[in-house]
Amino acid sequence: MATLRKDILMRLYNSFYRRRYRNLRKLYSSLVNELVVNFSDELLEFTVFTYALGKLLVKPRYSRPEYEEYWKEILEYLGELKDNKISLEKASKYLRELFLKMESEDPRYLFDMLTKAKIKTAATLYAKGVSLGTVAGLLKIPKEEILSYAGKTMMFDRVKEEIPVKKRLIVAEKLFGVEGK
Amino acid sequence: MEHSILCDSSVLISLTDACFADIFPFLAKKTPVEFYITPGVKQEIINRPLSIQMKAYELSAVRMKKLLKDKAIKYIDADTADLTKRLMFLGNNMFYAHGKPIHLIDLGETDIIATASLLGIKALLIDERTTRMLIEAPFRVKDHLEDELRTSVSINEKNYYEFRHAVEGMKVIRSIELLSVAYELGYFDDFGNDKVLTFEAALYKTKYSGSAVQFDEIKELLHILTQSN
């Protein structure tokens, strides 16, 4: 059964209670780090929901009074999770059901956002050092989707390459029998 | 197999997505190099998209199927099961965080290394960053994991050295090096005065299609290859 560190659960609860979008973003990054070391489907789903919660918080539409009851319910689940009264799996299940209820008339926005959140999580795992094939297999997302997203970020520019590109070119030229410049 | 290159799916995906699938027949015709793919790569980039009708990727799959049919890319097989299993164990039990092994590589990526090792193929065409770094500079993988996870990462030295021995002598090239060699051999000559511009655009396109290259590397390649043009 997947579990999360107590400090992460506390931070999650407090960030959501105080509607701190930035804190939720940082927490999302911590959750992805947890995924690298302790991958589970439950933790993945919870990580995606954390990202989604952060996105919803900044949307003016979801600040309207008709959504207040949903926020209270989410906070309740997060509270039960941090107090160890429900499991991560149960919490993810409740959140999933709640999201569907929130947009029962037109679920396209949320569905779209959750799909994009999953691709972003996949690309972030790849950026952190897990191989493309491993990420694609664990998250059940085609490599093409992950590459397409990752290629448009700066993730590859953050890591210093061991072999200079000039040396790589020489190796390639030698292999193909090309006389270099 | 001195002039053989074993191709990973990541490069084929990047180049096909960027509409450069024809670079393979071009280079196969102009040079002594032969491009190979394993059964696992064929399954992944051709069979699977076509069998389950993944419409978004069918065109790429059909293009690559044609490359195989025209023998611009060839199919190669080896009895890799045992070595793949061993290399997967080594790769996924090389680095530890919080006392737990970090699962880094999967079956497909390891199978390519195993195939290359068993058949004596020294050149690999891989855009995927983690596998490439494990072959070229595993300590960089450790440093990178520590930076990203913000925690200490330890190495199992026994597994590290055994893995290093298996990949000894292997050289990895990426899609931008392939495009660069093709440029030198006239691949972009049909564009006339726009040859350099097209080459530059091709490099950036493969980056945006997911090839693990840096902007500085592209600039440096352009400087090396086009400064006299």
Topology:
The complex is a heterodimer of chains A (181) and B (229).
Chain A: H1 6-17, H2 21-37, H3 41-57, H4 68-82, H5 88-102, H6 108-128, H7 132-139, H8 143-150, H9 165-176
Helix pairs in contact in A: 1-2, 1-4, 2-3, 2-6, 3-5, 3-6, 4-5, 6-7, 6-8
Chain B: E1 4-7, H1 9-17, H2 23-30, E2 34-37, H3 39-51, H4 55-69, E3 73-75, H5 81-92, E4 95-97, E5 100-101, H6 107-119, E6 123-125, H7 129-136, H8 138-149, E7 153-155, H9 157-166, E8 171-173, H10 175-184, H11 195-208, H12 215-226
Parallel strand pairs in B: 1-2, 1-6, 2-3, 6-8
Antiparallel strand pairs in B: 4-5, 4-7
Helix pairs in contact in B: 3-4, 5-6, 5-9, 7-8, 10-11, 11-12
How many β-strand runs of chain A?
0
* Tally of structural domains of chain A: 1
Distance between the termini of chain B: 35 Å
How would you sum up the major sheet of chain B? 5 strands, parallel
- State the total count of DSSP E strands of chain B: 8
Radius of gyration of chain A, taken over Cα atoms and rounded to an integer in Å: 20 Å
What does this protein look like?
The complex is a heterodimer of chains A (181) and B (229). Chain A has 181 residues and is mainly α. Chain A has one domain. Chain A has 9 helices and no strands. Chain A has helices spanning 6-17, 21-37, 41-57, 68-82, 88-102, 108-128, 132-139, 143-150, 165-176. The mean pLDDT of chain A is 88. Chain B is α/β, with parallel strands linked by helices and 229 residues long. A 5-stranded parallel beta sheet of chain B has the order 3-2-1-6-8. A 3-stranded antiparallel beta sheet of chain B has the order 5-4-7. The interface between A and B is large, with 45 and 69 residues.
Offer a quick outline of the entry.
The complex is a heterodimer of chains A (181) and B (229). With 181 residues, chain A is mainly alpha-helical. Chain A is built from 9 helices and no strands.
